[in-house]
Design brief:
The protein is an all-beta fold and 114 residues long. The chain contains no helices and ten strands. The N and C termini lie far apart (37 Å).
Length: 114
């Protein structure tokens, strides 16, 4: 099983970015999935989750700015991030929302400049 995140980069405060994560080696459509992030001075936190039937939930600090979605045919998870803030700077990872986690991938770095 492998999770490969992509799409990170450098963006100015107020800007937008979409990150993607592709799952290989497992049946993507069966799993509730989530986007997590970790910055150097914080523990990894769950930012957004989506169930197998597309119900979503969000960390309070990103509600109204971030949108999680999934494409079961492409086995890909997405996170659309708008109105980005400096405090959103982190490495973003995807993984299962609940249950035994898949091996963590490298994640994708999102840097928001002021």
């Amino acid at each position: 099983v492998q999770l490969q995140a992509s799409g990170g980069g450098l963006v100015q405060s107020g800007g937008s970015l979409r990150v993607s994560c592709k799952l290989s080696g497992a049946n993507f459509r069966l799993y509730d999935m989530g986007w997590y992030r970790q910055s150097p001075d914080k523990e990894r936190e769950l930012v957004a989750g989506i169930t197998s039937d597309h119900s979503t939930n969000y960390l309070d600090s990103v509600k109204g700015r971030f949108t999680i979605s999934r494409d079961n045919v492409r086995r890909t998870l997405y996170l659309q991030m708008n109105s980005l803030k400096v405090e959103d700077t982190a490495v973003y990872y995807c993984n299962r929302r609940v249950g035994d986690m898949f091996p963590w991938g490298r994640g994708t770095l999102v840097t928001v400049s002021s």
